[in-house]
Design goal:
Layout lengths: L2 H19 L3 H15 L2 H12 L4 H25 L4 H4 L20 H16 L4 H17 L5 H43 L1
Helix pairs in contact: 2-7, 3-4, 4-6, 4-8, 6-7, 6-8, 7-8
Length: 196
């Protein structure tokens, strides 16, 4: 069995088990809540406000926006190319049978999860001691999308990887820019001292 067949087998088995288990009103509520919070990027917006409130964290606002936009661009591009049907389609269900409204053929990768993990990675970059609760929220976002039958586990894992890599890349660019600015200031200071 090749790796893609194995992943599809795991994806299908998980989705089938969730479907056969039926709904739970508490889980339904939590999953729909997280899905809508993700749709409106509430976590990223709240984090943006936190970063903007303090002068020393304001540059991280731009890091956050860049990481979220990069992850969104990557996921959107892949979704358009792959056009993979969502799990509820595979199960023979329609949009009326699930709890949220989504495009039926944009399953891979999960954009909600990518955004959640991009925002979480930027948050953890600054708030390191809060890493476990921050990443836990991102994981719940991904699990909610699987529970709602709009993403396979592999969609969510791919979204998480895209989100984290987007944040890591933007943070790397940001740190490189910061070092370049600090070196430039240091060189100007040295030149001033020599002139004096």
């Amino acid at each position: 069995m090749n790796p893609i067949d194995f992943i599809q087998l795991i994806d299908s088995a998980v989705i089938l088990q969730i479907h056969l288990a039926g709904g739970n009103s508490l889980f339904d509520f939590i999953a729909v809540l997280f899905s809508y919070l993700g749709t409106f990027r509430v976590g990223a917006v709240l984090l943006s406000i936190i970063f903007l409130l303090r002068k020393e964290t304001r540059p991280l606002f731009f890091v956050l926006v860049a990481a979220v936009l990069l992850s969104a661009a990557v996921t959107w591009t892949i979704k358009e190319i792959v056009a993979h049907p969502r799990p509820f389609i595979w199960l023979g269900l329609t949009i009326e049978d699930i709890l949220i409204s989504v495009h039926p053929f944009r399953s891979f990768p999960s954009g909600h999860t990518a955004t959640a993990f991009a925002a979480a990675a930027v948050a953890v970059y600054h708030f390191r001691k809060w890493a476990i609760p921050i990443f836990s929220l991102a994981v719940i976002m991904g699990l909610s999308r699987i529970y709602l039958l709009v993403h396979y586990p592999s969609d969510v894992i791919a979204g998480a990887i895209i989100g984290i890599l987007s944040a890591v890349f933007v943070i790397w660019v940001f740190e490189r820019h910061q070092r370049k600015n600090e070196n430039g200031k240091s060189e100007r200071k040295d030149e001033t001292e020599i002139q004096v």
